[in-house]
# Entry
Amino acid sequence: MREGDGGRALSITNEDTEKSARKPRIRDAEATKARILEAAKKEFAKNGLGGARVDVIAEKANANKRMIYHYFESKERLFQTVLEDAYIDIRTAEQKLKLDDLEPKAALAKLVQFTWEYYLKNPEFITLVNSENLHRAKHLKKSEVIKAASRKFVNMVGDILERGASQGVFRPGVDPVQLNITIAAIGYYYLTNRFTGSIIFERDLMAKEAIDERLQFNVDTIMRLVCA
# Structure
């Protein structure tokens, strides 16, 4: 070994050790943040922003309040992150449907079915949206991430409508924003009012037969709105 090589080898060894030490710390930090976000989603969905408690989130995440404030700065910022994740999750899942590969009517029917089933499988999404509406969407207003994802979704639905209109199966001029609102509404209202609705209409709105019947009704409703 030439003179000076030992020092260089030692330097390289130390550098490799530092890199190896950094990787576990990064993984630990990401794992901690993921636990915090999962616990926060459940707490915010259950109690809303106002009723949610940071100490409960910390306990459920096996973390501490100091780490929550270190990663997210405040309860408000944590709520915004949870809300962003919730919207990005549904928007990402919609993109994975690959609706552009389907005929327009099949694509629209699949979107209606997906929306209904997503609401059923992710009840926290609805309660988080309810909570944000109580706060007049002040957190969504700050999020460019959600705005960009939502524009992409509206454009996707607009493309389906345009393809259908060009083929003569959909009426021309249907507003994709209005259609998106209606698709969301016919599932959202049913589920947010499932308890009172079951009493008022004297049927179990959450029975499997009722859920399947509602899905078919939703698809039929949307098709009647847009078909030529």
Remarks:
- The chain has a mean pLDDT of 90.
- DSSP finds ten helices and no strands in the chain.
- Residues 47 and 53 are 9 Å apart (CA to CA).
